[in-house]
Sequence to fold (139 residues):
Amino acid sequence: MMEPTNPIDILIRLLVILFLIFLGTTQSVTPPGGGGGGAPVSRSLTVIENVEVITLESYPYQLMLNVSGYQPDGCQLSVLVEQRREGSTVFVQIYREVPLDMICTMQLVPYNDTIRLDGGFESGVYQINVNGMVVNVNL
Fold:
């Protein structure tokens, strides 16, 4: 088989490879409610660029996060936030559920939100992980 020498052929092959890599990195999940009749979706994580922790003057302490970043595409979908605590680490996941058959524009959409963390926090050092961006807070 001859190797392509035309730059257009090379570009097309590279785009196909990138598309296949992208498909391999998306995570297919079942929609809430068990997937009875719902279209399969991919969980698209929000790209987080900055996390600022705000400590409210109360005891136990209450924490809020000012989060900024962007959505990696132009799909206009609801943003979902999940959080869980494991010891002194708080995990926050910010994402959208994108139907696998949805076509989105190739644009970055800014994301800014203030998120109140569940529960109270005693004095100590906590690690807050928002989509992989880790911030430490000492109360």
In short: Residues 25-31 have pLDDT under 50 and may be disordered. Residues 7-25 form the longest helix (19 residues).
